[in-house]
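FIELD: query
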Amino acid sequence: MLGPVILAASRSDRLRRVVSAAPVTKPVVNRFIPGESVDQIVPIIVDATSKGLELTMDVVGEDITTPEQAAAARDAYLELIEHLKALDLGTRAEMSVKLSMFGQALEGGHELALSNVRPVVEAAAAIGTTVTLDAEDHTTLDSMFAIHGELRKDFPQTGCVIQAYLFRTEDDARRLAAAGSRVRVVKGAYKEPASVAYQEKPEIDKAYIRVLRILMEGDGYPMVGSHDPRIVEIAQELARRAGRKPGDFEFQMLYGIRTEEHVRLAREGHRMRVYTAYGTDWYGYFMRRLAEKPANLLFFLRSVLTKN
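FIELD: result
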């Protein structure tokens, strides 16, 4: 039950200041967020791709309160794309975006987010790569899916994320499991009410497998977002039953978590994409990583307690 507590803490300005000021915080954060600037992140990209890994890049930042901040988020992604262009990696390095960063929660936010994200998708396509729209809390999803549908008219490779713990997700998966679609399925990291989402891990795991089966049996391209060893095994079996070969789907895991597994899957011939975040506004992203998995919280606490 620690997850909801940590998620609540992620929205606390006071705790943000305390955690950010703690001497031990930065070394621990670096496990999950390896840089604050594009220049710092480029060597990470080069190193990962040299090991046969692929990446999806996330410029972290939340709590957008003005259109100017949303435009700055857009420009940060455009700067990233300029650096990716020089690396010439194609789809081996794509991007993940949260529409909240592009102004989705502001007045007129749906249109504002669409107008800000479109240039990013266009620029990504121009260098041979693509963008995936991350899922946020359930109140934002109809807008996200509508923007996803609009972008796919011109850029059909645009991906999206679905969250297995939501009751609606099996229907969303059936709708999205069409030729040309790219769908990442995750368990879900936001605190959602019992009226819209499963609350217990066994229920969420079962829902994840049901959703994954729908995607594997469909005509789209499934992206398996999970660190759970059992889910990884089941995904391979579902792919085999559906007649999929390595390359007809991919695994996605977070930077800094199960890194040896990243390399193992890549060596076995699977597409293994590492979700890699960078930027200065790391607090909300970091706290969600702690909330998702108790081991992450234990890692942080051990670092606090053993720091001289």
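FIELD: remark
The chain has 13 helices and eight strands.
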